[in-house]
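The material for today's practical consists of a large collection of protein records. Backbone structure tokens are a discrete shorthand for how the chain folds in space. An example says more than a description, so a record of this kind follows:
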Amino acid sequence: MAEVLDSLGMFEAAAGLPEQVEVAVSVASGIGGLPDHDDVENVVVLGMGGSGVAGDLLTVVAGPFMPVPVVVHKGYSIPNFIDQHTVVFAISFSGETEETVEAAIEAEAAGGRMVVLSSGGELERLAGEWGAPHVPIAPGIPMPRAGLGAVAIPPLVLLESMGLFPGARAWIDSAVVQLRTRRDALVRDGNQAAALARRIGRTMPIVYGGGGIGSVAAQRWKTQINENAKCPAFANVHPELCHNEICGWGQHGDVTRQVFRLVNLRHDFEHPQVGRRFDLTADLLAEVVGGVDEVRADGDGTLAQALDLMLFGDFVSLHLAADAGVDPGPVPILTELKQHLAIP
């Protein structure tokens, strides 16, 4: 690939996801002080942005197999059911995320069994004050959104250690195998992610996923394109979009054809009717968008296929940035917003 503007090494970070996952397993495997599964009635994951995706992934990968419910909370005030029987994962790459720090303080005060993941910051300090387990995030990751493996994998390992998600490591091992295969394909010249980025070009991508895996992957594509390529992108999920959004394509086709391109994310765990919905909506939208593309997951298991789709999207977003001459790393608008929101 030709020289591109990438001051923080985001391409290299994306390519290192398989190894990042392996490091995260090693780090989380040494964490003690966790509650016994008999004392746990529910699990809550606190996190925003690139850290919050860990909860989304946990919900769709581990949630269906766990004996207790999982709730992802993205915001300030906490759910009122949190008590001494709740395991609360407080995840913040920096350890300083305003919403997560405030929610974690409330959760601990309510009796929640806290488990903190951060690279330091206020959350690490609070974990020490509370006597709560702290999972350190490995150094060298340039931005929170480049730390998918570092934040998403430890909760799975810890839930297995608590007896709430048996077999997690086997699923993770399968995911690493697929991530290496996909990574090796995506770092070659003329790869599929680069080609898709060229087709998207200056249009605004709309990413559709199916079911839980597709929903998490489509949202990840959207946010990575927003932050890396600095351009608008939108996401939705089957079957919900067939009950509302599909109606919105009834007009303005002469405009939308110039503006939007549809990307369908497919995987092996879709409900059969979701597969039919993909086909039907692709036919309907072909006349009102600039084009329809499909990306299909590979790998053994739901975790492998979810991460496979997400890694593909990461590379698409980076190629969109490179094609536009945009540095994918810095996000000055987010820095500015945090400065304005800082409490004097």
